[in-house]
Each structure stands twice: as structure tokens, then as C-alpha cells.
């Protein structure tokens, strides 16, 4: 096998495809099925970690839950694709362990889309981007935000009332973001770049599904209340 790990630039391009969110989850499943049993794919954010808190404002009893960006943690591997486990010991020292051979390593790659992938480089040039409705920016869970400068782009976006969307990475890692360059009606004459991984609508859909499931459970419990509980002596003959 070729031992040279490489940067998968397609990870960035995928952020511009309409089916990215499905692809992200599919990639996690594919990687899980292809890696040895001692590796794993971890989904963070969304429904799994949804917690509701109580807040009373005057006479209003409010429940609220954070909108957490979703993340996919791909498994660590060596240059040959063998699964590695990240281990933290002592004073925060980190190493990577091959649990089959007990070999320790100081660094690791990741197994993404059936490939051994090294860390991404910071985005400095974008050749593929989309012009989208500016309302799409409001649906983004913004993780980082910047002031941008480009007079001709500012003039164009103010005229069209659109936003530019593209894939972006800060480098030195494996995380890829959706980036939007857009105007803001509150700050005329300024460009902003908003960066994030997850749309609010994704998390809201999880909330809707979770709420619907909770109502079904409550309805089932109401039905159960009208049924006599089973007794041990009814289930076994002594």
C-alpha cells in the first residue's frame, strides 16, 4: 500500500453540494464499517446530546436547549490504515496506540472516505463557490465570524442581496466549515464572513422528532395506566 498520506481536498468541495449533510452521515457509517472493530466513529451534537434547562422570567416558565454544532469524529490510523487509539497519560501527554500490536506512536492520520488523510492546510484560495440567498446565512450556527474587505464584492452583494458560500478550513486539523461572505443591513458598507458546520434547521428537526417521540411515549404511558400490572404468581406456576 502507498504509505504517503495526503490531503483530501474533496472534503472542502463537498460543503458546496446540496447533499452534504447526508454525505457526512454516510461517510461516518462507511468509515465505521470499513475500519477494524477497535476503531469508532463518534457523532457529537444534535439529538444525542440535547439537554433542556428551566428558566423563569416573570410569570413565564421557559425551557431552553443549546444549538450545538454537529461534528463527526473520524477514527485515527497509521500510514497503512491500521486503527489507532488516542491515549492521554500523565500531565496531558498524548500518544496513539495500536491495540493489536501495542505499538505506540507520537502522531496519527485519520481514516476518511476510505483513505488515509493528513491534516488539512489553511484555505488561502477558493475556486469553487456558490451564490446563495442571504437568508441561508441566518440558518447557520455561527462558530466564528469576521469582518471582510473587498470593495467590488461588497458592491455586488449589496446590489444582488445575495451571499457567497464555500468550503473553508483553518488548517492544522481535519475540520471543514461552511463559510458565507455577506452584508448586514445593520452595518451598511461592511462585509462579514460567517463560519460554521451546522444549520439551525438540522437541530430544529431533531427537536421536532424528539418532541414527537416524547408525546408518543406519554400517550403509551397513559394507556398503560388503565391496564392492571402483571403479578409474579400469574406468570409462573409454583
Structural account:
The chain is of the alpha+beta class and 238 residues long. Among the domains are: 10-40 and 75-117, no CATH class; 130-196, no CATH class. Helices cover 26% and strands 29% of the residues. The protein has six helices and 15 strands. The protein has a six-stranded antiparallel sheet with strand order 8-7-6-5-9-10. The chain has a five-stranded antiparallel sheet with strand order 11-13-14-15-12. A two-stranded antiparallel sheet has the order 1-4. The chain is flat, with a radius of gyration of 24 Å. The relative contact order is 0.15. The model is unreliable at 1-9, 15-47 and 229-233 (pLDDT under 50).
SSE layout and pairings?
Blueprint: H1 10-13, H2 20-34, E1 42-44, E2 53-57, E3 60-64, E4 71-73, E5 76-77, E6 83-89, E7 93-98, E8 103-105, E9 109-112, E10 115-117, E11 130-133, H3 135-138, E12 144-148, H4 151-160, E13 162-168, E14 177-183, E15 191-196, H5 200-225, H6 232-235
Antiparallel strand pairs: 1-4, 2-3, 5-6, 5-9, 6-7, 7-8, 9-10, 11-13, 12-15, 13-14, 14-15
Large-scale geometry: flat
Q: Which segments are poorly predicted (pLDDT under 50) over 5 or more consecutive residues?
A: 1-9, 15-47, 229-233
Please outline the major beta sheet.
Answer: 6 strands, antiparallel
What would you call the structural class?
A: alpha+beta
What string, H for helix and E for strand, traces the elements in order? HHEEEEEEEEEEEHEHEEEHH
What is the share of helical residues?
A: 25-40%
Oligomer: single chain
**Portion in beta strands:** 25-35%
Mean pLDDT over the full residue set: 78
Distance between the termini: 66 Å
Number of helices: 6
Radius of gyration: 24 Å
Strand arrangement in the largest pleated sheet = 8-7-6-5-9-10
Number of strands: 15
Amino acid at each position: 500500500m502507498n504509505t504517503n498520506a495526503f490531503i483530501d481536498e474533496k472534503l472542502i468541495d463537498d460543503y458546496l453540494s446540496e447533499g452534504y449533510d447526508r454525505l457526512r452521515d454516510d461517510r461516518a457509517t462507511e468509515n465505521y464499517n470499513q475500519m477494524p472493530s477497535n476503531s469508532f466513529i463518534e457523532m457529537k451534537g444534535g439529538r444525542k446530546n440535547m439537554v433542556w434547562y428551566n428558566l423563569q422570567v416573570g410569570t413565564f416558565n421557559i425551557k431552553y436547549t443549546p444549538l450545538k454544532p454537529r461534528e463527526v469524529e473520524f477514527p485515527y490510523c497509521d500510514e497503512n490504515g491500521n486503527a489507532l487509539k488516542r491515549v492521554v497519560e500523565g500531565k496531558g501527554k498524548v500518544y496513539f496506540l495500536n491495540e493489536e500490536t501495542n505499538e505506540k506512536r507520537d502522531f496519527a492520520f485519520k481514516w476518511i472516505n476510505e483513505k488515509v488523510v493528513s491534516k488539512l492546510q489553511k484555505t488561502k484560495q477558493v475556486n469553487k463557490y456558490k451564490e446563495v440567498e442571504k437568508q441561508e446565512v441566518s440558518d447557520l450556527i455561527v462558530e466564528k465570524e469576521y469582518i471582510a474587505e473587498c470593495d467590488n464584492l461588497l458592491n455586488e452583494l449589496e446590489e444582488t442581496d445575495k451571499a457567497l458560500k464555500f468550503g473553508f478550513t483553518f488548517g492544522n486539523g481535519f475540520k471543514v466549515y461552511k463559510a458565507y461572505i455577506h452584508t448586514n443591513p445593520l452595518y451598511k458598507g461592511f462585509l462579514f464572513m460567517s463560519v460554521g458546520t451546522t444549520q439551525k434547521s438540522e437541530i430544529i428537526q431533531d427537536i421536532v422528532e424528539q418532541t414527537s417521540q416524547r408525546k408518543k411515549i406519554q400517550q403509551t404511558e397513559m394507556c398503560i395506566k388503565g391496564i392492571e400490572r402483571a403479578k409474579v404468581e400469574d406468570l409462573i406456576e409454583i
